[in-house]
Fold these 2 entries.
Entry 1:
Amino acid sequence: MRSVEQIAEQLRKKGLKLTPQRRLIIDILLHDRTHPTVEEVYRKVLETMPEVSRTTVYNTIREMLSLGEVAEVQDLSDGGIRYDTTGEPHHHFFCVRCKALVDVNLDLPPMAESSTELSDCVIIKQQLTLYGLCPACRALQSQEEALEEKEAVAGR
């Protein structure tokens, strides 16, 4: 993972300053492994700097996107675009119940090698998202199903 100072150097090369607001936003993005949305970053920024606007957060994330320091994660729910600062190629697991998004390292062959439809294509990025229930949500669902079964038996 890159540091705030390394990203600051990239900003300076583009003629941008590392303001306290940008530093805070970058720091939040670098250390938040939940793949936050702009709104989630904005709420965290407000805890420290209540005067920062949502536009500042959005523009800083857009600057980081243009530098290649963050990547958009495919739209997973109605919560908005989520951002990932992990630079290494990886995949994701998305819990459909609690909306948690976690990094997953899987050794998969390049998709073009296993598909005739893609044989003439040039793949520039490969990202797989697995959808399911995380352990906590799976346990909750099991408890709910057991309770429903118990109620159904009692109601007979």
Entry 2:
Amino acid sequence: MKFTVPMLAVALGAMINAAPAAAKEGEGLKKHDVLLRVRGIWVSPNGTSDGIVPALPADRLRITDSFAPEIDVTWMATKNIGFELIAATTRHSARGTAGVTAGLGNVVDTWVLPPTVTAQYHFNSDGKVRPYMGAGLNYTVFWNAKATPALTGAVGATPVHINDSVGYALQGGVDIDLNRKFFLNIDAKYIDMNPRATLYTTALGTQTVRLRINPIIVGVGFGIRL
């Protein structure tokens, strides 16, 4: 299943509207609280790449989904406004979906490290059910990028380099208190991520492709007040 930004916005709006009816008064958030969360995340890239140029302009690549653990820390500047640092690393493949590379399957494997900082507004901060929305900046590093055996078998040895990516991030979620110290967390993010990959092929020479990743990241986990 593929997500879109409008779908994410509708889901987050419904979550915020429903929260007051479900919330019960509790100790809630306090200024200078530090929240540590650990989640399991599903990373679902959206869209396909541009063509591989100059040799294969009709080819398209899609980045595969991935599951991974994620950790984040939020510092509450006030009882409503927090700043969150998110860190995780996931492994993905670029898979051919059109043209010559469609017959090869996965052509590049890479690890992705996308540290993200968001500024958040926490609704119903005095309650036990606290939706939040945020926006911020993402810097993504692609590491250990390698051509697959399928690609090297077709075009020879192929070193791969993927440029770092900088983009915006949108976020929404909800914290649900289990007690004063521990809480359940559900979180969703959209990250603007469009790096350029360069493939130094033996048979075709140097090729470049703009990867349009733009993942939706959905996570569920637990948090603790430190």
